[in-house]
């Protein structure tokens, strides 16, 4: 029985990682004080002109390389529309931007 415990202890020790890896990628806060990337500014301008939103948050969540954006948008233009139709409206306005990026996270809300 003690030999089994010895084997289990040795196996458990051998399977533990000897070092840990931590990400050193800096986080960028998207606040009014932080400067927006060119992509964020372009998206913000297009969506503001088309939808006159009460809420508009555009964030480059790709670490600043401009390949993935998270957008939150609330507008009266979405009242009475399904989520799919609202997303189609936004995608149509951003079609020239979308072709150059990898991904888009979109949250649209009707304005009350």
From TrEMBL:
<dbReference type="GO" id="GO:0005759">
    <property type="term" value="C:mitochondrial matrix"/>
</dbReference>
<dbReference type="InterPro" id="IPR002634">
    <property type="entry name" value="BolA"/>
</dbReference>
<protein>
    <submittedName>
        <fullName>Bola-like protein</fullName>
    </submittedName>
</protein>
<comment type="similarity">
    <text>Belongs to the BolA/IbaG family.</text>
</comment>
<dbReference type="Pfam" id="PF01722">
    <property type="entry name" value="BolA"/>
</dbReference>
<dbReference type="InterPro" id="IPR036065">
    <property type="entry name" value="BolA-like_sf"/>
</dbReference>
<dbReference type="InterPro" id="IPR052275">
    <property type="entry name" value="Mt_Fe-S_assembly_factor"/>
</dbReference>
